[in-house]
């Protein structure tokens, strides 16, 4: 997929009008006509640099639609999107902080859709490359797809230029890819935790924010996590102390926030790359990372 | 079938007095009910669904199964809005054929799951109202289940229930297949026959308690020999 792009390999363009919406006018952008077998390999000028084509519903009362130029695929900026009859996965606690031993990224593993726990074991921390992980919060599907797009773009850059993109530049790339969707209902709040010439922590949000800092916590459980982190966080923490601080912060947040829970996922990023602190590596028993049992530990 | 009701209050009984003029907005979605379930074993996968198609207080059909065979090793179960289910399966079939003609091989379960995720997400601003579960065998011949949300977020599971009775069935599956929330129980690996029996029992329970689930149960068992389909009657009331 990425290699095809680098080699500029393209199938012979066949003029398939697979799902032709010509009767609906200019408002609907169908599946791409030339690259018919892949939805998302075009970073050409008609899609604002975002490698994904979206179907925009032709809403009757939005006159801004009709005046929009054909080449732009920017989604409706007003709130008149189609009303959805279902809830999407939302609600989380994620955090990241910097200390002398690198960067720690931690998150809970619950995905909630409305009042139902859609999945109790979601991975909210995704590695992008060997020295960068991203924690996601907001809408689950949005984060998953945008992480995939980011992995693809970073890999393409690496293949084209022979070196890895810096983390600040990655954050800027991500922020500019999300910019066309500002004002829509897309909700993506990512924290890039990585190492390039030193630990880096950058928060990128679909509202347009892009902030570098030493500690970030995102999600519905973040106020509780900040409370715990602000008390104990120091530059001089040891690795074990930092891991247990992150775990306790997520635990306290899940204790108070209904939409966070289940288990804790921890990543530690150093100059050598990222390490997933799998549950059995922690000195405490395996079950300690199951938050319902962790409660007993902390009470004692 | 198009619904002219505002989706916010399906089936709520209003008081019998005049509340004033009410504007009904056109909703492009309708909810047709139905439950889908998938279980992955060591060398098999099961996808099962009920066959009732309902809308509001009516039953449109008693024989509308929600399992769709995609390839020899993959079955898709989709419940939610039947119109979107039909269109989505047509699109997936077309994309499978395109892949087969371009690459001269059948798509694997994992690849189908990734493709479905992008198809669903391309409609992020006007989603397909479908809850999908894919069951099949991966490249190594082990059972795989992929569960989706309506906009394309997915992950690989061992078992998953989706649709109207999902909130009732999922805890039961957690307990019986995942051995969760039980103490000192031996974790016996699931055999195919035990899994099929469990799926039947689970759907019978769902039909008792969920009005949108019932009529008949279609079970598709996927092994390396192929896909075996079975129909079991359920409560029809």
From TrEMBL, chain A:
Matches recorded under PANTHER family: METALLOPROTEASE TLDD (PTHR32194), PROTEASOME SUBUNIT BETA (PTHR32194:SF15)
Record has Cytoplasm as a keyword: yes
Lineage: Eukaryota, Metazoa, Chordata, Craniata, Vertebrata
One GO cellular component, as annotated: proteasome core complex
Location of this chain's protein in the cell: Cytoplasm; Nucleus
Keyword ATP-binding belongs to the record: no
Catalytic activity: Cleavage of peptide bonds with very broad specificity
CDD domains: proteasome_beta_type_5 (cd03761)
Functional summary from the UniProt entry: Component of the proteasome, a multicatalytic proteinase complex which is characterized by its ability to cleave peptides with Arg, Phe, Tyr, Leu, and Glu adjacent to the leaving group at neutral or slightly basic pH. The proteasome has an ATP-dependent proteolytic activity. The proteasome is a multicatalytic proteinase complex which is characterized by its ability to cleave peptides with Arg, Phe, Tyr, Leu, and Glu adjacent to the leaving group at neutral or slightly basic pH. The proteasome has an ATP-dependent proteolytic activity. This subunit is involved in antigen processing to generate class I binding peptides.
Keywords: Cytoplasm, Hydrolase, Nucleus, Protease, Proteasome, Threonine protease
An annotated Gene Ontology molecular function: threonine-type endopeptidase activity
Name used for this protein in its record: Proteasome subunit beta
Stored SUPFAM superfamilies: N-terminal nucleophile aminohydrolases (Ntn hydrolases)
Pfam families xrefs: Proteasome
Family to which the UniProt record says this protein belongs: Belongs to the peptidase T1B family.
Source superkingdom: Eukaryota
Subunit structure: Component of the proteasome complex.
From TrEMBL, chain B:
Keyword Protein transport tagged: no
Subunit structure: Component of the proteasome complex.
Family from the record: Belongs to the peptidase T1B family.
Cross-referenced PANTHER family: METALLOPROTEASE TLDD, PROTEASOME SUBUNIT BETA TYPE-1
CC terms in the record's Gene Ontology section: cytoplasm; nucleus; proteasome core complex
CDD domains from the UniProt entry: proteasome_beta_type_1
The protein's name in its UniProt record: Proteasome subunit beta
Function: Component of the proteasome, a multicatalytic proteinase complex which is characterized by its ability to cleave peptides with Arg, Phe, Tyr, Leu, and Glu adjacent to the leaving group at neutral or slightly basic pH. The proteasome has an ATP-dependent proteolytic activity.
GO biological process, one term: cellular response to ethanol
Family matches, as Pfam families: Proteasome (PF00227)
InterPro entries the UniProt entry points to: Ntn_hydrolases_N, Proteasome_bsu_CS, Proteasome_sua/b, Proteasome_suB-type
Keywords of the record: Cytoplasm, Nucleus, Proteasome
Subcellular localization(s) per the UniProt record: Cytoplasm; Nucleus
């Amino acid at each position: 997929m990425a290699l095809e792009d680098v080699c500029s390999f393209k199938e012979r363009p066949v003029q398939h009008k697979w799902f032709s919406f010509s009767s609906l006018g200019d408002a609907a952008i169908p599946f791409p006509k030339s690259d018919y077998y892949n939805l998302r390999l075009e970073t050409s000028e008609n899609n604002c640099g975002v490698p994904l084509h979206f179907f925009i519903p032709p809403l009757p009362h939005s006159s801004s639609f009709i005046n929009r130029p054909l080449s732009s695929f920017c989604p409706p900026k007003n709130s008149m999107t189609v009303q959805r009859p279902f809830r999407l996965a939302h609600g989380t606690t994620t955090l990241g902080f910097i200390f002398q031993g690198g960067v720690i990224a931690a998150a809970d593993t619950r995905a909630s859709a409305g009042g139902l726990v859609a999945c109790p074991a979601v991975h909210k921390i995704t590695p992008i490359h060997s020295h960068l992980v991203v924690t996601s919060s907001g809408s689950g599907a949005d984060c998953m797809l945008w992480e995939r797009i980011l992995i693809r773009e970073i890999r393409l850059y690496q293949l084209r230029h022979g070196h890895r993109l810096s983390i600040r530049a990655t954050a800027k790339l991500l922020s500019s890819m999300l910019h066309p969707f500002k004002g829509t209902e897309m909700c993506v709040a990512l924290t890039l935790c990585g190492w390039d010439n030193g630990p880096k922590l950058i928060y990128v949000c679909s509202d347009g924010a892009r902030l570098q800092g030493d500690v970030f916590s995102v999600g519905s459980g973040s106020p509780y996590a900040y409370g715990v982190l602000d008390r104990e966080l120091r530059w001089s923490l040891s690795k074990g102390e930092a891991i247990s601080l992150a775990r306790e912060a997520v635990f306290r947040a899940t204790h108070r926030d209904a939409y966070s829970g289940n288990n804790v996922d921890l990543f530690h990023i150093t100059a050598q790359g990222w390490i997933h602190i799998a549950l059995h590596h922690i000195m405490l028993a395996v079950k300690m990372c199951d938050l319902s049992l962790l409660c007993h530990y902390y009470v004692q | 079938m198009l619904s002219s009701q505002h989706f916010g209050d399906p089936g709520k009984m209003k008081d019998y007095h005049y509340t004033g003029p009410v504007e009904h907005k056109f909703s492009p979605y309708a909810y047709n009910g139905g439950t889908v379930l998938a279980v992955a074993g060591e060398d098999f996968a099961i996808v099962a669904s009920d066959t009732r198609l309902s809308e509001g207080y009516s039953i449109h059909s008693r024989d509308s199964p929600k399992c769709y065979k995609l390839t020899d090793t993959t079955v898709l179960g989709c419940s939610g809005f039947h119109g979107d289910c039909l269109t989505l399966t047509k699109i997936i079939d077309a994309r499978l054929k395109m892949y087969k003609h371009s690459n001269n091989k059948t798509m694997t379960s994992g690849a189908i799951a990734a493709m479905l995720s992008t198809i669903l997400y391309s409609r992020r601003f006007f989603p397909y109202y479908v809850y999908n579960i894919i069951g099949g065998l991966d490249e190594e011949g082990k059972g795989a289940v992929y569960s989706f949300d309506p906009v394309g977020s997915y992950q690989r599971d061992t078992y998953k229930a989706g649709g109207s009775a999902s909130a009732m069935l999922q805890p039961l599956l957690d307990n019986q297949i995942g051995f969760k929330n039980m103490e000192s129980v031996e974790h016996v690996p699931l055999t195919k026959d035990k899994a099929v029996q469990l799926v039947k029992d689970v759907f019978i329970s769902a039909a008792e308690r969920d009005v949108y689930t019932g009529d008949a149960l279609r079970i598709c068992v996927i092994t390396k020999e192929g896909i075996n389909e079975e129909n079991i009657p359920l409560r029809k009331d």
